[in-house]
Amino acid sequence: MAIHVLRRTQVVAAPLAECWAFFSDPRNLAQLTPPQLDFRVLSDLPPAVYPGMMIEYRVRPLLGIPVTWLTEITHVEESRRFVDEQRVGPYAVWHHEHFFTALDGGRTELRDVVHYVLPFGWLGDLFHPLLVAPQLAKIFAFREKAVAARFGRG
């Protein structure tokens, strides 16, 4: 069983407060998810994340097969970071940290660190380079383009 780590950093031309307001509003999740995943939120969402918050949604990550994903927001440090962890879903472990750092000139650095473990032990790990890693790369590439379109490149 391998623990995989995905790291992404992006600088945008928007102030920290604006970035935080967008990313900490779970109602904006769909805007950051590729349409082919058919992302659907199933729970009522408040305008801001908080520790203990549960978000249930459906996604079709592979071959159009629907998967229910339940995420818990485990940590929130206002305007600095928040963490979401999968409670039910396709991964054995999914721990996603979102970091926000104000930069000069009204810019913001957005940093994501995801630790994840695939199900089925070594068998699941066989699919990592063929299916999972490329799929995650596409998802985060879409997210980067969507964020740049919204906030501008920094």
Care to describe what's here?
It is built from 3 helices and 7 strands; from the N terminus they run βαββββββαα. It is an alpha+beta fold and 154 residues long. The chain has one domain (4-151): 2-Layer Sandwich (Alpha-D-Glucose-1,6-Bisphosphate, Chain A, domain 4).
- Number of domain modules: 1
Main pleated sheet: 7 strands, antiparallel
The CA-CA distance between the termini, in Å, is: 38 Å
Number of helices: 3
Helix proportion of residues, in percent? 10-25%
In which order are the strands of the major sheet placed? 1-7-6-5-4-3-2
Percentage beta strand: 35-45%
The CATH topology is Alpha-D-Glucose-1,6-Bisphosphate, Chain A, domain 4
Shape: globular
Q: Which architecture per CATH?
A: 2-Layer Sandwich
Rg from Cα: 15 Å
Features:
single chain; 154 residues; Alpha-D-Glucose-1,6-Bisphosphate, Chain A, domain 4; 3 helices
Topology:
Blueprint: E1 4-12, H1 16-23, E2 40-41, E3 54-62, E4 65-77, E5 81-88, E6 93-103, E7 107-117, H2 121-126, H3 128-151
Antiparallel strand pairs: 1-7, 2-3, 3-4, 4-5, 5-6, 6-7
Summarize the structure.
It contains three helices and seven strands; from the N terminus they run βαββββββαα. With 154 residues, it is α+β, with helices and mostly antiparallel strands.
